[in-house]
Fold:
Amino acid sequence: MTFRTDTSSRAPLLEEMSLRYTQSLSPEIQEMKVVVESWLCFPADGIMEISTHPNATVDSIISSFCAHKGMPHDPSFALFNTSNKCLKNNKSLAKQGVTDGKSLFLANKTNADEHKFINWCLLAFIAMVVGGGGLLTVSLVYSLTGGEIPFDFGVVLDAGSTHTQITVYKWEGDKYQGTGQVKQIASCKIEGGIASETDPKEVGPSLMPCLSNVSQLIPEDKLTGTPLYLGATAGMRLLNLSNTLLTEAILLLTKCTLVQSVFSVKTVQIISGHDEGVFAWITANFFLWRFVSQPSHEEVSLEEDSYLSRTTVGTLDLGGASTQISYEIFKGDSENRSVSALKLYGHNYYVFSKSYLCFGINEALRRFYFLLVKDPLKITTIDNPCGLNGYNQTYSGIYLFDQPCTWTEHSAELVRLNPNVLKQNYTFVGQSNKTDCSVSIKKLIDVETCNNTFKECFKAPEKPLPSTQFIGFSGFFYTLNFFNATNSSLEDFKQNVDAFCEKPWKKVKDLKSKNLEEYCFEGHFVHHILTTSYGFNSTTWSNIIFANKVRKMDLGWSLGYMINATNALPAEQPTLPVLNLPAFVILLILTSMILLTSVVFWFLFLRQKRVDNALYIRMS
Structure:
């Protein structure tokens, strides 16, 4: 039903307000007045002030209004208060909360629902809360969920000649131009090389406790997909020369144990000396941010400014059984088998890498003793020019002769002619003779002399060394560090070595250093390797940075191995938001419509408020 709200139609009715309809009241009843506004059509329209009393019923008010209009009482009429509540006809005004001066609205009962005074303010508030809160929630859920780049993890086992290092790495799964920004998060060391195990079945189980410890740092949902790589280095390369079957048994049984772990075992193999050098080169240049377009999220201190360059550094690695040199060359030299082509962070690199088996510190020392013994074979007490006076060392014939780096056709003939050689012990008496020590070591690495005795010899790199920086780590660093020469000139280093070699054992034995008795040999050996073999001189010596860590991270081949391996691993996509795009758009439209509805409700509230104000103004 449509109410008449045109003020022009109501103008004549305002005159009627001067007419007072007085209902008979008993003297004890207090008089009160109510204003009745009719929303009915003529002749039941208009506004009327009615005098009454609190105990009067609603029906009596309707009867009074109808009587004044000269029309019969219509039972379909009803009164409503300003809260849109329909008043009961048979109840008094007081019991229904109607007080003096209140406004009541006359309408038809049958169409009462059409004429209710809607609480537009409440509806506007509810719509605003639902729409605004929904819009904010939907937007936050879509924008703040999803889009996260998951981390991937990898495990590398560096099975060296003296120990096995297990390292866990992680990187953002989307990678950077195809290569992961790999970071080390945990490591664990097992003493003893896998090549030294007497029982191949014990190698795998010996690795498991350490592997179990580091696995706890990998999220459980990532464990089964985490790739694991075992790379055996020079120790196993040597064993493979002397006992291929034992080598294969160790690798096979170790793999059988590792596949029972939670990891995804990718490779269990011996890596070549060439690859070991290449991976160490990747590690060093990654730590020093030398790769083109390699992003960096770390702050750099002033002391590290010298590292920041896009020219790659070469690497010098000295282990127990082998030594490696690696550096970048031009593309035109890539035909050489000693050169590897790499693609890292979207750019191509060509790396020359050369490994010299049997010229790590431990195996070079064994060969040194072998050369001292082999000529006067029947003599069991031999002068050692590189040993300190007052210190004697004794080694068995098996240690000297029955080893891959010394077991050659020549040594086999010596053993055949002297069957007791392997059972004998040989004592080396220290002489503290720096001159003879230097001569003996030069003879040890001399290619012509070596070819007459051994299979593996130290041939200088066929590619000239570039005029770039090199970083010497592992044995090179430990040796230079012992002689306090990591930042010294070549001459100072040589002087420190000579001074140490001239001292008797009693003057140095209290120094706190492992393998103290071998440093005279190591000092001269490192000096000859870097100068005679590699060609560094007084001028280019300053190009070498001796360090074992860069920014507190260990230098070595395993990180470079993991970085290179990420090129072959699939990239991870960002996680999806909780709401997909179609659902987000639909919910966004719905919540926006609800929010818009709250604005409409608010305008309706303001309109109703203006109507009420106009009513009271007219009544006043």
Q: What stands out?
A: The chain is about 40% helix and 20% strand. The chain has a mean pLDDT of 81.
